[in-house]
Write a structure and sequence with these properties.
Elements lengths: L2 H6 L1 H14 L5 H12 L5 H13 L4 H24 L4 E2 L2 E2 L1 H26 L4 H27 L4 H24 L6 H24 L13 H4 L5 H7 L4 H13 L4 H13 L2 H20 L6 H15 L3
Antiparallel strand pairs: 1-2
Helix pairs in contact: 2-5, 4-5, 4-8, 4-15, 5-6, 5-7, 5-8, 7-8, 8-9, 9-14, 9-15, 11-13, 11-14, 14-15
Length: about 325
């Protein structure tokens, strides 16, 4: 699934990777060692791909586009490093997390370093529009995460609030990736806004897919139940709580509050969600967001680039990890 997006922009991705490697260099040996560790364990690089493809829709990629893609990746990596500290996670993408290897204090400082590197990259080159788009995303990501933490305390989340949370914590970065890329090649602000909205809709679908992994299926394997352990109310669970009788609802909420580490109790919650149609409902909503993203994309002229972006959007909802 991921081959096509990579090969259509293979040259641009290679240029981005070189640029990014240089962008994270430091004069502190410890930092340099950690940066090499981060660069060598790069993930799927979805966000830089969205930056480059959105830019290519408007014209040839330029140095400003490479800076935008690097800023997006720097900010994304900074948030992952900080998230691992907050969640006390020891693994990231199958490798040890930064905090597992170098402890929390170093991990927090590394996240701060990545953030400041990204901001300076834009400021030093007068990329003010890109910086404005990305700074707004960082604000929204923080608000989304804090709103989720607040709602996890009283376990009172409505569907609209859930969308508000994921629009902030996940969709805002993908929206800004598309917007930042677009603003380096497009002159038409309407088209830039359209691509931002396209990225947001894709990000919403992406996060719902992530939430579905908690419940497992034939392709993914055993359910993880991690969101339940962390008292996160995701769409399958919100739908279920609104569609069960009072006693079952009480039992689920009690489990989330008091028995969220008990495997049998977590299995009970997962079984109820599956039985009451929570998975199907979340899938339906995910595909609605995906289709809304594709409708926006189809307003742009047909081309290999547009096809590749469509392929990437479909990947976000069809992936198995």
């Amino acid at each position: 699934m991921m081959d096509k997006p990579y090969y259509v922009i293979a040259k641009e991705m290679a240029a981005f990777e070189e640029y990014f490697k240089e962008a994270v260099k430091s004069r502190v040996p410890l930092l340099d060692r950690i940066m090499r560790y981060i660069v060598n364990r790069k993930g799927k690089q979805l966000r830089p791909k969205f930056v480059l493809l959105s830019a290519r829709l408007g014209g040839d990629i330029n140095i400003s586009t490479l800076r935008a893609a690097s800023l997006v990746e720097l900010l994304h990596t900074a948030t992952l490093v900080h998230d691992d500290v907050v969640d006390d996670a020891t693994e990231r993408r199958g490798f040890f997390s930064i905090n597992a290897l170098w402890k929390n204090k170093v991990a927090v400082l590394v996240g701060d370093y990545l953030l400041s590197k990204g901001l300076l990259l834009s400021l030093d080159n007068n990329d003010f529009e890109v910086l404005k788009i990305l700074s707004n995303a960082v604000k929204m990501m923080s608000e989304g995460e804090l709103l989720q933490i607040e709602k996890a305390r009283n376990l009172n989340v409505h569907e609209d609030t859930y969308y508000e949370i994921i629009r902030g914590k996940t969709a805002s970065l993908l929206a800004s990736a598309c917007g930042a890329g677009a603003c380096t090649t497009f002159k038409d602000t309407d088209k830039i806004e359209k691509l931002k909205l396209f990225g947001e809709k894709t990000g919403m679908a992406f996060q719902i897919k992530d939430d579905l992994f908690d419940y497992g299926n034939d392709n993914i394997g055993k359910p993880t139940g991690n969101d339940i352990k962390e008292k996160k109310l995701t769409l399958p669970l919100i739908y279920t709580l609104n569609n069960v009788d009072k006693s079952t609802k009480k039992r689920i909420i009690y489990t989330l509050k008091n028995e969220n580490t008990n495997k049998e109790k977590i299995k009970f919650v997962i079984d109820v969600v599956k039985d009451k149609g929570g998975i199907q409902y979340a899938c339906k909503k995910m595909f609605t967001f995906r289709d809304e993203a594709l409708t926006i994309l189809n307003e742009f002229p047909q081309s290999d680039l547009r096809d590749t972006l469509e392929h990437l959007v479909r990947y976000t909802t069809e992936r198995t990890y």
